[in-house]
Design a protein that fits this description.
The structure holds two protein chains of two kinds.
Chain A: E1 2-7, E2 10-15, H1 22-29, E3 48-51, E4 54-57, E5 70-72, H2 85-92, H3 102-115, H4 121-127, H5 139-150
Chain B: H1 21-26, E1 41-47, E2 53-59, H2 61-64, E3 69-74, H3 75-78, E4 108-109, E5 115-121, H4 124-131, E6 135-140, H5 147-152, E7 165-171, H6 175-183, E8 187-198, E9 207-212, E10 219-223, H7 228-239, E11 246-249, H8 265-277, E12 281-284, H9 287-293, E13 297-308, E14 314-326, H10 336-341, E15 352-361, H11 375-393, H12 397-404, E16 413-414, E17 420-421, H13 426-437, H14 439-452, E18 456-466, H15 474-479, E19 488-494, E20 500-504, H16 513-525, E21 532-535, H17 553-580, E22 587-590, E23 593-596, E24 599-605, H18 606-615, E25 627-633, E26 642-652, E27 658-668, H19 675-694, E28 726-729, H20 747-763, H21 778-790
Parallel strand pairs in B: 1-12, 10-11, 14-15, 20-21, 27-28
Antiparallel strand pairs in B: 1-5, 2-4, 2-6, 3-5, 7-15, 8-13, 9-10, 9-12, 13-14, 16-17, 18-26, 19-20, 19-25, 22-23, 23-24, 26-27
Classes of the chains: A alpha+beta, B alpha+beta.
The structure holds FE2/S2 (inorganic) cluster (2 copies).
One FE2/S2 (inorganic) cluster (FES) sits at the interface of chains A and B.
Chain lengths: ~150, ~800
């Protein structure tokens, strides 16, 4: 099937199998491997991207369902050689270790702040519930998101 | 000619941001699944759905007939392709029993997830589709799930061994002293604890890509591994391919926690199939196969006894361990309980000690090293037992610990188990932790809540831990029957433009070695860390190394970097002395330049020295060109980090729900290279220990079926289930290495599980509940409360 998807601002048109997951489309067809896969039950959030501005686990969606949509991946966040403020905040606060959960975590965090611009710690913790990190104990991730909200 | 910017002195100890981060934050970093290898074929393994069964038949014909399928093999088809079975490097006793472990099972399967066939196809989707068309007939056998059942030999899993017991290991330096202490003791405490099996669950699943060179007969193996160097040697031995024809690269690796410290069936199978088919091949683990086919952690039953005098001073510790190896021995499976076996006397001055460990096979996924590997188990047992002793003696848990700590002036301390602890100041860490937690106020709040009969009770739990890391002095490893050494390698080069290159044999997967190692070299050279590149995790770039595990990287590998840097400096000094016509000792190195003492105008920056060394036009007679030095550092002793953690929980007496309200960790890992990274390690470690205490358990039914095979069932905690942590440190340098460092990768995990369970039991003490098995789920707590109510 033919899909037209705007990925990080560029319109693409590709022939895909109907069963192709959006995450595989992004990784294998569009070549954007920053979006990671950490599970097969939609539990880990490593694959989180934005679809029409909303954060979505891209392993829960078929590429064909994203037809006509605007998708932003982690590769689309940094602008003009500078990290996005949320990426920068993760760096400043050591919100990543192995970095595997990080692209999904950053994408989830940016959409969390879009929804709740000035969250409490509890709201950040609940807002990131769908994204698992095994390295950081979340402490510095939460710190990074709160710091970014306050800046 | 100098391209290096001078750095302010004292780089060590700075909270420098990590240089690893930009690539990881932008998605530029390449994990193994991200590697684009044109023409690569994909593997999918067919795995046993039963824990124990004979294989009657495996039919791959339907799979082979599918479009896009290139090949399919059964275990029998490949039996002659392995040069040796999968390795176990730690035969802990001379008579240890080890079954033959092939990448694909041939006659019988011994755990759910054991591979029986493999399909090779043009795409991942096709490979998985085809794997479902492989038909396996099994003749089911009764499964051995529990340790006790295994011990009974009711069913012997590996018939050729004649028993399910792999080994019994004993340490009793003075058995009479232990007996005497118990017979004269005023207080005796017996703790019986279960260390449930845990699934490591690094967020990046495993994966391996093998690229054969079409003409050279060489193979590049990309693997999501902690141990590229060990893996290279082991793949050579098990595949029969010469070591010189294998290059192993660990690209970005998404966490390991011990689960990637192994030589796995899939790594060997992918290599052997790439050789057989002469095509690049990739295999990427799915989460639900990873929960079965990647090693699990813990899996022990512990019996610990303390003897103590009237004041509660412990006079002897006696331990009996039963350990669940799972179906086969992986790389260091049998050694995991032994790594903890010296530490069951914890931070206490205990004169008599004995321990025995019996390890058995079960029809479950093999166990192996998981963050802490043996040491969290040991700490849990002694720290739970110390609380029991405090109760019996009638003193506060903090007081019982104070009475028993090894005093700071006793270091280096020779333990009854035969170790020499390098340095420690245990009471200082306790004091700091109690102060940060507001211990007195917490006790007052607890008393208020108890009095008012609040349905939510407060529990305060302590744990003072000490661990043995910096693995390891090679001779000690020899005495423990480990098949390799414990040294680490580093090479430091000053490049012609004055930039610095550090090559390390450690293999980071989240620990930030590039940042820390650059700081170590820069600090000594007096240059900016930004001018130091750090190369690692590629056996072609770093030929020697023993990789990253056991909190060893800094205290062995980082120290090797420091020593190699010093050697480069000494060579550079000779060149400068020659060219400036002064004696070596008249030169001092500061701010990245050698200066003649007393003549500040006569100096030579390191960059210029590097260029002189490179051109070699004017070197002292007999001195070789270039500035490069290596070090293979074999540590003289382990290092022994320590600390005290305080967990505060609220337990709802009606629902059994436990909430971790706050957590204080005071850790002492000696000198710190980068406190930002130290704190991060503690946070993550604490979260994993809390997870064992409250959430996680690999659950199996009586048939040996894994019930928690996905992240829906296996409860890796999310941000909403944890609080922010309060961390602080004391600094007691290690006298055993020139950086005074100890290591911190596992400390958080080691200290936290007992602190949390001690807190839960403290909350329930009024109800007469003194033990809750991990994980302390609402159901378990609720049941315990019902049971006491019914009494
Ligand atoms: S890959 Fe785990 S939620 Fe999508
Ligand atoms: S940084 Fe490793 S999983 Fe989050």
């Amino acid at each position: 099937m033919r899909v037209s998807i705007t990925v990080n601002g560029e319109l693409r048109s590709d022939d895909v199998e109907p069963r192709l997951l959006l995450v595989h489309y992004l990784r294998d067809v569009a070549g954007l491997t920053g979006t990671n896969i950490g599970c097969d039950t939609s539990s880990c959030g490593a694959c989180t991207v934005h679809v029409d501005g909303e954060s979505v686990k891209s392993c829960t969606m078929l590429a064909v369902q994203a037809d006509g949509c605007e998708v932003t991946t982690i590769e689309g966040l940094a602008f003009d050689g500078a990290l996005h403020p949320m990426q920068e905040s993760f760096r400043q606060h050591h919100g990543l270790q192995c970095g595997f959960c990080t692209p999904g975590m950053v994408m989830a965090a940016t959409s969390l702040l879009a929804e709740i611009p000035d969250p409490t710690e509890q709201q950040v913790r609940e807002g990131l519930e769908g994204n698992l990190c095994r390295c950081t104990g979340y402490h510095n991730i939460v710190k990074a998101v709160l710091a970014e909200a306050r800046s | 000619m100098s391209a290096t910017a001078p750095a302010p002195p004292g780089i060590l100890g700075q909270r420098r941001l990590r240089r690893e981060d930009p690539a990881l934050l932008t998605g530029e970093a390449r994990f193994v699944a991200d590697l684009d290898v044109p023409g690569a074929l994909h593997l999918a393994f067919v795995r046993s759905t039963l824990a124990h069964a004979r294989i009657s038949s495996v039919d791959v014909s339907a799979a082979l007939a599918m479009p896009g399928v290139v090949a399919a093999f059964t275990g029998a088809d490949l039996e002659r392709d392995w040069a040796a079975p999968l390795p176990c490097a730690w035969p802990v006793t001379a008579d240890m029993k080890a079954p033959r472990h092939l990448p694909l099972a041939v006659d019988k399967v011994c755990y759910m997830g054991d591979a029986v066939a493999v399909v090779v196809a043009e795409s991942e989707y096709l490979a998985r589709d085809a794997a479902e068309q492989v038909f396996v007939e099994y003749d089911p056998l009764p499964a051995v799930v529990g340790i006790d059942d295994a011990l009974s030999d009711r069913v012997v899993i590996h018939e050729e061994l004649g028993t399910n017991t792999s080994y019994t290991w004993e340490l009793a330096p003075d058995a009479t002293a232990v007996e005497a202490a118990f017979s004269s003791a005023t207080h005796r405490v017996h703790g019986h604890y279960v260390q449930q099996r845990l699934i490591p669950a690094a967020i990046e699943p495993r994966g391996v890509v093998v690229v054969p060179q079409p003409f050279g007969g060489e193979f590049t193996v990309f693997s999501s591994t902690q141990i590229p160097h060990i893996l290279k040697v082991m793949l050579a031995l098990t595949s029969g391919i010469a070591e010189t024809s294998i290059r192993v690269i660990a690209p970005s690796v998404g966490g390991g926690f011990g689960s990637k410290l192994n030589v796995y069936a899939e790594e060997l199978a992918t290599l052997v199939l790439a050789k057989r088919l002469r095509r690049p091949i990739r295999w990427i683990e799915t989460r639900s196969e990873g929960t079965q086919a990647t090693i699990q952690g813990r899996g022990q039953i512990q019996d610990i006894e303390l003897a103590a005098d009237a004041e509660g001073r412990v006079t002897a510790v006696r331990v009996k361990l039963l350990a669940d190896m799972g179906a086969y021995l992986q790389l260091v499976t049998p050694g995991v309980p032994i790594l903890g076996a010296f530490l069951y006397s914890g931070v206490y001055d205990v004169p008599a000690y004995s321990i025995s460990c019996t390890s058995v096979f079960t029809n479950l996924t093999p166990t192996d090293a998981y963050r802490g590997a043996g040491r969290p188990e040991a700490t849990y047992a002694i720290e739970r037992a110390m609380d029991a002793l405090a109760r019996q003696v009638g003193v506060d848990p903090a007081e019982i610990r104070r009475r028993n700590y090894i005093k700071a002036e006793k270091f280096p301390y020779a333990s009854a188990a035969g170790l020499v602890y390098d340095s420690g100041a245990y009471e200082a860490a306790l004091d700091r932790a109690l102060e940060l937690a507001g211990y007195q106020e917490l006790r007052a709040e607890q008393a208020r809540r108890r009095e008012s009969g609040d349905s939510v009770q407060l529990g305060i739990g302590l744990s003072s831990y000490m661990e043995m890391c910096g693995l390891a002095p090679s001779r000690v490893l020899a005495s423990l029957n480990y098949s390799a050494g414990g040294w680490e390698a580093a090479t430091v080069r000053l490049l012609p433009t004055g930039k610095v290159q550090v090559v390390t044999g450690t293999s980071p997967h989240g620990q930030g070695h590039e940042t820390s190692w650059s700081m170590i070299a820069a600090d000594r050279l007096g240059v900016s860390p930004d001018d130091v590149e750090v190369l690692h995790s590629d056996t072609a770039v770093a030929p020697y190394g023993l990789d990253t595990y056991g909190s060893r990287s800094l205290s062995v590998g980082g120290v090797a970097v420091a020593i190699a840097t010093d050697r480069v400096i000494e060579k550079a000094r000779k060149i400068v002395a020659h060219q400036l016509e002064v004696a070596d000792e008249d030169l001092e190195l500061a701010g990245g330049a050698f200066t003649v003492k007393g003549s500040p105008d006569r100096s030579m920056p390191l960059g210029a020295v590097a260029f002189e060394a490179f051109t070699a036009h004017d070197l002292p007679d007999g001195l070789e060109p270039n500035l490069e030095a290596s070090c293979h550092f074999d540590p003289p002793n382990f290092t022994f980090p320590f600390g005290t953690h305080v967990a505060v929980v609220e337990v709802d007496l009606e629902t059994g729900r436990v909430i971790l309200r706050s957590y204080v960790a005071v850790d002492d890992c000696g000198n710190q290279v980068n406190p930002l990274i130290v704190e991060g390690q503690v946070h993550g470690g604490v979260a994993q220990g809390v997870a064992q205490a409250l959430f996680e358990k690999a659950s199996y039914d009586e048939q040996g079926t894994l019930l928690t095979s996905t992240l829906l069932d296996y409860l890796v905690p999310a941000a909403s289930e944890l609080p922010s942590f309060v961390t602080a440190s004391t600094v007691t340098p290690s006298p055993t290495n020139l950086l005074g460092v100890k290591g911190v990768g596992e400390a958080g995990t080691i200290g936290s599980a007992p602190a949390v369970i001690n807190a839960v039991c403290d909350a329930l003490a009024r109800q007469g509940i003194h033990d809750i098995e991990m994980p302390a789920t609402p159901e378990r707590v609720w049941r315990a409360l019902k049971e006491v109510a019914a009494r």
